[in-house]
């Protein structure tokens, strides 16, 4: 017998079904509330609203837990690879040997974009932000794959769409970088793995080929695994919203990239480094910035701190912080920015303002320090986040479009504007 909750409105009792998830998360199903009572719920920014039921990721914000298809991220970072985690998120299970080989071969096979697209990049000014280029290019990619745009896709076509985008988005990102530095575009090499090929496309020049480095490859693999999915965050919810109109995956991903760009979301990793560098340049230490972040009189926030769901240390930040030390030591880099980040973390975590509001470092706080050590330019940091989040966005789109009960997302509102009024001719206003 399904449990219900009773809602008393003006003496009329409405029974609403209660739902419980695999890990004990509880919800009130209000799907019939308006039809029964004429009332809707109001929850700006959806802080208390579940948009869907999903089997992809589980977050326990109170415990600081993140699992992909039930497997803890720490175990995946230690034992898996970004390509294998992409398969796990998208297809729901760890691939067998043959499945994995075939998946990697298909992704590698789709590494070329139409040669005509190269001229699109040179039409942008050199200072164009790569997130603007990436979102435009992902949507533009669709014109070369008309066979993959129909609203109802066979499983095979859906897999084709997925492997095309998994493979090509990193090519578009690397080409956007090459355009920004005025260097020739570089194509993938068959002997390199997915992420080593991305770094090869970014950093190989005619004078010096990119030399894979196992410590760097592992650190990048871990970074991408940690960014791969995060249930119903702003950009993933955007992908699901766009996908719910039966728009194609190219359009949905392009929209997700735009949502991620914001400094409150994926754009925070760029904002963190800019904040740390201004602290370093000011020479005034971290206390002034901690005080500014507490001062309601200004808009300054400690970028890379706080989270809508995590009320504990973001488990991803803890792992990234460990790899920060490892990568900088391996490269012999003594970056004062890392010490400033640690000092800022220490100052905040012992300050009542942050303790009371349960504000801890999030995934964006340390990631930029590693990207900087890998010589990735600051304006490419959010592109790195987008490349990591790609399999998660794809997994959620696939879960949505394969749901036989899928409906177009269309929230309601509470109207607060003028009551009915007549049109006034301009000479009477
Ligand atoms: C990501 O959702 C996801 O899963 C996202 C993500 C993913 O993987 O997809 O995890 C990736 O986007 C991480 C977040 C990156 N953004 C930042 O680091 C930007 C800085 N952080 C804040 O803007 C903020 O913490 C948010 C946006 C992350 C969360 O905002 P909420 O949940 O709306 O919290 P809030 O703004 O209501 O803050 C609650 C209180 C407020 O103070 P009071 O009004 O109660 O006095 O905490 C304060 C806020 O002013 N606060 C901060 C702060 N974050 C919150 N004060 C100073 N510095 C901060 N960073």
List each distinct ligand once: s-citryldethia Coenzyme A
Look at the helices and sheets and give the structural class: mainly alpha
* SSE ordering: EEEHEEEHHHHHHHHHHHHHHHHH
Helix fraction by DSSP (H/I, runs of at least 4):
40-55%
Query: How many domains comprise the coordinates?
Result: 3
What is the CATH superfamily label of the largest domain?
Citrate Synthase, domain 1
The appropriate CATH architecture of the largest domain is Orthogonal Bundle
Low-confidence stretches: none
Which oligomeric form is depicted? single chain
Give the C-level CATH assignment of the largest domain. Answer: Mainly Alpha
- CATH-defined fold name of the largest domain: Citrate Synthase, domain 1
Shape summary: globular
Overview of this structure, please?
- This protein is mainly alpha-helical.
- The chain is 50% helix and 7% strand.
- It folds into 3 domains: 47 residues, Single Sheet (Rubrerythrin, domain 2), CATH 2.20.28; 190 residues, Citrate Synthase, domain 1 (Orthogonal Bundle); 108 residues, Cytochrome P450-Terp, domain 2 (Cytochrome p450-Terp, domain 2, Orthogonal Bundle).
- Strands 1-2-3 form a 3-stranded antiparallel beta sheet. A 3-stranded antiparallel beta sheet has the order 4-5-6.
- A hairpin with a 2-residue loop joins strand 1 and strand 2.
- S-citryldethia Coenzyme A binds next to loops.
